[in-house]
Predict the structure.
Amino acid sequence: MPSFATEVKNEAARLSYESPCCRTAELAALLRMGATIALGARHTFGLNFKTENAAVARKALQLLKSEGGGVKTEVTVSRNRRLKKNNRYTVSVPPAPNVSALLETLGFLQEERLNMDSDARLLRKSCCRAAYLRGAFLGGGSVSRPDAQSHLELVTGSYGLGKLLHNLLRRMEFPVGFTDRKESYVVYLKEGDAILDFLAMMGAEKAVSAMEVARNIKEVREQVNRLVNCETANLQKAVDAAGRQLADIQHLAAAGVLDGLPEALREVADARLAQPAASLAELADAIHLTKSGLSHRMRKLCAMAAKLRGKQMGKSFARKEYR
């Protein structure tokens, strides 16, 4: 079963922008995240884009055909022997004279010099900025599954590109972070709302819906857990209180005090002895008394038991002193 990140990429890869400038921005980011430039004879250039996602490979091929100005493309599939042995797709543009025009359009080549990090020219429009970020996610992004702790990241081997993505997201008011990891640079989001906004910006509606459903389920579960914990705590308090009341009444009974109590107090004591695990509300119903009235009488019984214990301790102490 594919991961959630794979499902998001599959969905986003099926989407297309109508505007050529947005398609160019998406292709530029996609290639910056996962492509290398190849050098050919007579100062010609080529491209090699690698990915383990078939939908992303198709997207790269589609964009190169539509925005590449007639460059030749090739696709090869190899078996990755490491990890889960996923297929590895390579979309290649063999070195040729017309590739330079494509690299200039993408911003990779400026005044016959390679430009590896800056794409400011492609990011003037808000629609192109969103397209660029979608391309970056397709080329080097991942996102945690909806029921896990929120986390989305864009990983690149270029510090300059990482800072560009970080600054771009900050400019778009995303609560973005930036760090390094071994030989890579990571731009990340950790807030659930921000990740939802990012996925919505890419047009991944199914992914947004899945995350919203998961968040709602999580909130319901947390609310249920809070209610259960509260109810458990209240029940434990009631059980503890009933145990203390029972011990106090049994102490009064052992001292022969119960028979001399007023009828109202004796009725409450007898009810507790008869139903040691009942709540105050249940006892009140059993003897046709209000809960507040029962509580008042029970406090009197407990106070009498405490006073009796105090006297008994005093006598015991006095005997020890006399001896």
Q: What stands out?
A: Residues 4-203 form a domain with the Endonuclease I-creI fold (CATH 3.10.28.10).
